[in-house]
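Subject: Sanity check before I submit

Could someone independently write out the structure tokens for this chain? I want to compare against mine line by line before I put it in a report. The sequence has 65 residues.
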Amino acid sequence: MPRREGAGRPKLDDPKSNKVSMRLSEEELKRFEAYAKRHGLSKADTLRRAVDELISKDETDGKGT
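---
Independent answer below. Compare away.
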């Protein structure tokens, strides 16, 4: 059966095609998940926000390259 036009998930303007993996201790994972839950964020959005904040802070401090 051919696919219908417009069927499925819509295309994103900024697709997230790069995957990053890391290991956390049990304590780090608990704190990370608690933070995400407390702020109503997914784990992915929590990491994106943290990365953006660290890089922005670095650029503001004049330490960025």
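---
OP: Matches mine. For the report I'm noting this point. The chain has a mean pLDDT of 89.
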